[in-house]
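Priority: medium. Attachment 1 of 2:
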């Protein structure tokens, strides 16, 4: 059978791929290259430190005391209540844990379900390059048309007039991300008002990726769509516990949306993953309740790391504009190399022992600039060691 009909039939199966341009994500590629060459990995966005011990204790408690079966489809109620409490405290928005909060296995699943729930074949979805890599495939799989508007360096601001000019009768959704991966820029109150105005005027749905909502610096406040009632009334606001509690491998996030949108999101969610992991949800609920101060401490925790990394590179030949939010720092390298960014990060990883992400991967049509993204959610010693190598270039 191995070399017979079954084998040949398997080998000759031809499929017309629904995502022909999608390969392995750059984050996996760079992490593997870093591991193969023993390089310091400042590419993929995950901490090299652990989440809070008290949080892990609570998860272990539930693992050990029989909370290992399916949770409710929308997430355990205590966690949805903790999310609603947090949303009220942070953004002054009163949301119902029953009808407006859904716990998902990662922000990625929430984004996928949000797009799938509202986007029909032929619908246009506006997104901004550089864009997180899950957005476009989600739109494409739903049969939609991603309309990618490029933000240009060094400011990477959204030109709302251009957005207005891009909207057609087919436009269904706008996807935004603030604080922004990979640029570290943030939308301000004026941006949110423009977004609200356009979304209302053209009856659009907004998918707002706010996974870095608590990683904001220099006293700047995060402008969640949840602060703007008319905008919140037509938005999916998505967040990730992975970023907030240093546990990216737990893949747990959530979506806050008005009842009509939540109902549609859940219709998809229940057939994509149905639920997230029970003991993790229960542990997160307890920890959020017992330690609300964790959220208040995050800006300072990450700002110190950003500043340490920036200071250590001050006299390097990289040009840095300190990040406003996220745990990413863009660096312009044209004084160091003429290589295109993909070739540059490969050389940097193999020859100089520091892995980074090339900026061009976040674009449909990359601009002719030379930027790479470094991740600073690392131990101080890791950042110092990497910066020494980078400053020597
Ligand atoms: C902008 C952005 N959105 C979504 C995600 C995915 O979050 P999660 O791991 O919770 O699915 C990430 C993770 O890197 C991200 O950077």
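Attachment 2 of 2:
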């Amino acid at each position: 059978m191995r070399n017979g009909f079954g084998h040949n039939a398997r080998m000759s199966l031809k499929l017309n791929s629904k995502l022909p341009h999608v390969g392995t994500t750059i984050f996996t590629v760079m992490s593997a290259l870093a591991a193969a060459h023993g390089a310091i990995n400042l590419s993929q966005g995950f901490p090299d430190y652990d989440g809070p011990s008290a949080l892990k204790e609570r998860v272990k408690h539930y693992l050990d005391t029989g909370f290992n079966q399916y949770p409710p489809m929308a997430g355990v109620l205590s966690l949805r209540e903790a999310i609603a409490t947090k949303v009220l405290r942070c953004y002054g928005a009163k949301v119902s844990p029953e009808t407006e909060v859904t716990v998902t296995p990662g922000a990625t699943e929430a984004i996928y379900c949000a797009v799938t729930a509202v986007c029909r074949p032929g619908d246009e979805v506006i997104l901004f390059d550089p864009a997180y890599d899950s957005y476009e495939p989600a739109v494409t799989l739903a049969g939609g048309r991603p309309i990618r508007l490029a933000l240009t360096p060094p400011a990477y601001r959204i030109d709302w007039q251009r957005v207005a000019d891009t909207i057609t009768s087919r436009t269904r959704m706008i996807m935004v991300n603030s604080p922004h991966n990979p640029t570290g820029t943030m939308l301000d109150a004026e941006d949110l008002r423009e977004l609200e105005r356009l979304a209302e005027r053209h009856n659009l749905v907004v998918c707002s990726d706010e996974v870095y909502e608590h990683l904001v610096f220099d006293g700047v406040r995060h402008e969640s769509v949840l602060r703007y009632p008319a905008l919140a009334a037509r938005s999916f606001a998505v967040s990730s516990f992975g970023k907030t509690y240093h546990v990216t491998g737990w893949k747990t996030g959530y979506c806050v949306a008005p009842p009509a949108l939540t109902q549609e999101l859940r219709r998809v969610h229940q057939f994509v993953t149905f639920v997230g992991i029970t003991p993790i949800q229960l542990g997160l609920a307890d920890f959020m309740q017992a330690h609300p101060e964790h959220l208040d401490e995050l800006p300072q925790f990450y700002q110190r790391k950003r500043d340490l990394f920036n200071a250590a590179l001050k006299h390097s030949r990289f040009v840095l504009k300190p990040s406003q939010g996220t745990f990413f720092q863009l660096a312009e390298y044209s004084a160091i190399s003429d290589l295109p960014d993909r070739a540059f990060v490969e050389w940097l990883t193999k020859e100089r022992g520091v892995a980074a992400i090339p900026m061009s991967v976040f674009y449909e049509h990359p601009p002719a600039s030379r930027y790479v993204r470094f991740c600073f959610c690392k131990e101080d010693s890791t950042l110092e060691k990497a910066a020494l190598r980078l400053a020597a270039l």
